[in-house]
């Protein structure tokens, strides 16, 4: 027996009820079935399991993803229903494969997974998919497929990419490291986790002499982390991270995500006109 009454989950889109972002795995099939399909989108969070330097856990992308979506669930108000699917905890991480603890999927495996999901969505007449991706290496894989998936499955795909996009561009004033040099496990990810999940950060390894600053070449996408940061895996300014920056970044991510979801909300509304 639960202690006290749990807050009821919404089950319909009736006037005055404001659905939002909800975890699908807490709903019954009947509750899902009751939803107006023209007002429904699935949300697939995609992270990674890969090295993030000696000071951060291999689940860094995943932890940033979960904490940011958990935060968003608490305050996002939308007119349409966004159902959060269980997260895909693995991504395309070949660049980090030289470091133990990294588990990568092949691109073909990732695509097969999303296409199986789309087969199920098609069966249940769900027409919108939002991919919220927190690992830069996954971004080009999904971008390349969005038009083909639209044509083959009749599903409109919207993307949010924390990395491999301009998501953090407006956060530059919050940072001491140039965005294009804060590539992996640097100031952004370290500060964010120092604030959101401090117990996961190994402070002993955060030192200025461990920071590595490089710029990726825009003609060579086959780079490997071991060549750029041998023995560490850190690409960026981790030692510049502070708790204060982490708190600001957490709020920045919340605002940015809310902005995206409001845009998606409008897309669904406009499609019904
Ligand atoms: Zn990362």
Automatic annotation (TrEMBL):
- What keywords sit in the KW lines? Hydrolase, Metal-binding, Zinc
Report a single Gene Ontology molecular function: metal ion binding
Cofactor(s) listed: Zn(2+)
UniProt key word Membrane? no
Please verify whether the record's keywords include Hydrolase: yes
Q: Which GO terms describe its biological process?
A: riboflavin biosynthetic process
Q: Which family does it belong to?
A: Belongs to the creatininase superfamily.
**What name does the UniProt record give this protein?**
Creatininase
Identify the species of origin: Anaerotruncus colihominis DSM 17241
């Amino acid at each position: 027996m639960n202690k006290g009454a749990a807050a009821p989950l919404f089950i319909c889109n009736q006037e005055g009820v404001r659905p939002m972002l909800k975890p699908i795995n807490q709903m019954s099939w009947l509750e899902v079935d009751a939803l107006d399909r023209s007002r429904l989108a699935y949300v697939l969070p995609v992270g990674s399991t890969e090295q993030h330097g000696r000071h951060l856990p291999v689940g860094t992308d995943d932890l940033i993803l979960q904490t940011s979506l958990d935060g968003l669930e608490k305050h996002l108000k939308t007119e349409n229903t966004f159902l959060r699917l269980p997260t895909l905890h693995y991504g395309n991480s070949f660049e980090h494969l030289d470091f133990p603890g990294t588990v990568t999927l092949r691109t073909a495996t990732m695509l097969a997974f999303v296409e199986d999901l789309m087969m199920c969505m098609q069966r249940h007449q769900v027409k919108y998919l939002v991919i919220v991706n927190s690992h830069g290496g996954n971004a080009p894989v999904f971008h390349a497929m969005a038009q083909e998936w639209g044509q083959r499955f009749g599903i409109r795909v919207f993307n949010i990419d924390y990395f491999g996009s301009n998501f953090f561009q407006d956060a530059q004033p919050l940072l001491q490291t140039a965005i294009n040099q804060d590539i992996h496990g640097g100031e952004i990810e370290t500060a964010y986790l120092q604030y959101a999940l401090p117990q996961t950060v190994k402070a002993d390894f955060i030192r200025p002499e461990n920071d590595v600053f490089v710029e990726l070449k825009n003609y060579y996408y086959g780079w490997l982390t071991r060549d750029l940061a041998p023995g560490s895996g850190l690409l960026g300014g981790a030692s510049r991270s502070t708790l204060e920056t982490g708190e600001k970044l957490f709020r920045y991510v919340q605002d940015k995500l809310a902005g995206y979801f409001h845009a998606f909300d409008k897309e669904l509304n406009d499609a019904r006109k």
